[in-house]
Amino acid sequence: MRIMIGRFSEESNSFAPQQAGDEDFWISVGDRILKNQGFSRNTEIAGFLDVLMRRRSIQVIPAVDARALPNGCVRRETYERIKELFLRTLTQSDRVDGVLLALHGAMQVEELGDGEGDFLETLRDYCGPDVPIVATLDLHAVVTQKMVKNATAFVGYRTAPHTDMYAVGSRAANLLLQLLDTKASCSMAFRKIPMIVPGEKAESAEEPMRSLLRRIDELEQNSDVLSVSLFIGNAWIDDEESGVSTIAVGKTPTAAESAAQMLANEVWAKRFEFSYPSYAKVVDPDSAIEAAWNALRSGRSPVIMVDSGDNPTAGAPGDSTFLLRKVLNAGIPDATVISIVDPEALAACVEAGIGKKLILTLGGKIDRTGGPPINIQCVVEKVADANSYFTGDPTYDQSAKGRAVVVKVQDTRTEIIITEKRVNNTDPKFPRSLGIEPTQRSLLLIKDSYCTDEYRRMAQEWLLVLTPGATQQMLETLNYRRIRRPIFPLDKGILPKW
């Protein structure tokens, strides 16, 4: 059997002003994909390969591995170029018996909209109706009718923060082999639930997600049900098909339809239960400053303050000065900011050199939602090229992610990490690779919404700050134009029929 594998993954944000172009994707083609699995084992592709390689009769055809940090919508020419790389693999192959894909499920493309729907439709046209196409999807996928029409089966993540990529890849590969071995068809049922939920209110270890995931396990005990998935969706995609959805794959249409409907009913019944995680104190910006000072005065540090409205791992620009300005004005003397995207300020620091003093005009250049640039007097402490710091993601750390600098605000112990491009701030390996030990700092201001367990374990106070920006949590304040109404919670007074 000949099975093509690949990844095409980007999570879009409709409210972010920037776009994802060629420079934002990390791309490998052909056999290079196989070699790269040594860098990180917890990927869908690693899961694909470990299942497929157990059989000598299977020939793996590696196509393309294209991945980007969440961003704005993808430029049309970038999308078409990557799609063409996949098509080149198909046209150069005699045939393929099956296709395994790692998709995100929330990629918006300039002029096209639904990126995965268009991509799957193109692959289906090339492969024909009988070749099974099985794809993994992120928990935050926005599943569309076109996606469902052109794929054979979807298998979704079950963890947030995401830790089960390898397991999802393995499940998808086993499902594809089951279909090929039995030469049986399957049915995929899809339910769209008229509600949107920020990912921060749907962590897998918290209720109601914990109970819903247990329910998925129960539904899969039915021998006629092959897979069940819940997709929370992406609340920051303004699209007609935005919303929470359920997918069930079954041996029969009846089994699939029943499982998808039962799970959807339970999600809808629990719609008021989705809430922020129990470990977080959710506060407005002024209350965050007060809470931080109270913790520090009582000797509890580090305090972790997350700038939820400017979260690069959900597509935000990463250059808001809103919360940084409040921290500096509050006089907190020992803070570390992780991080601010500003290539102009970074270039000025590089030109000045380590140990030099300068006045920076920092941030607020990509998105003014979080305030204008801020002027700071600082000293350049460290300059790092792309290969000398680590964001916790081996695949991104091989890409041209740009340089980073560390500056210290004059007359304080406050440090700011400035990056040339948007980076993943979720892992403490990032500041440590730049010589900053997070546990030794009083306050960590992180552009994120939820971080790794290691950050959570070190925090004496965890503050999720409700800040403005492309990923702001107050969904009712966002200017949705295309999303289908009514939808919960935007229309609480007129609840959708279900």
Write a compact overview of the structure shown.
This protein is of the alpha/beta class.
Describe this structure in words.
The protein has 498 residues and is of the alpha/beta class. The protein has 2 domains: 2-273, no CATH class; 281-467, no CATH class. The protein has 13 helices and 20 strands. The strands form 4 sheets. A 9-stranded mixed sheet has the order 12-20-13-19-14-18-17-16-15, with helices on one face. Helix 7 runs antiparallel to helix 8. It is globular and about 70 Å long.
Key structural traits:
498 residues; six-stranded mixed sheet; 13 helices; globular; alpha/beta; 20 strands
**Average pLDDT score:** 94
Largest sheet: 9 strands, mixed
Strand content: 15-25%
Q: Unreliable runs, pLDDT <50, ≥5 residues?
A: none
Fraction of residues in helices? Answer: 25-40%
Question: Secondary-structure blueprint of this entry?
Answer:
Layout: E1 2-9, E2 25-29, H1 32-36, H2 44-52, E3 59-68, H3 76-92, E4 98-103, E5 108-109, E6 113-114, H4 115-127, E7 133-137, H5 145-150, E8 153-156, H6 165-182, E9 187-193, H7 209-219, E10 225-231, E11 244-250, H8 253-269, E12 281-283, H9 285-297, E13 303-307, H10 322-330, E14 335-341, H11 343-352, E15 357-362, E16 374-384, E17 404-409, E18 415-419, H12 429-433, E19 443-446, H13 453-458, E20 461-465
Parallel strand pairs: 1-3, 1-4, 4-7, 7-8, 12-20, 13-19, 13-20, 14-18, 14-19
Antiparallel strand pairs: 2-3, 5-6, 9-11, 10-11, 15-16, 16-17, 17-18
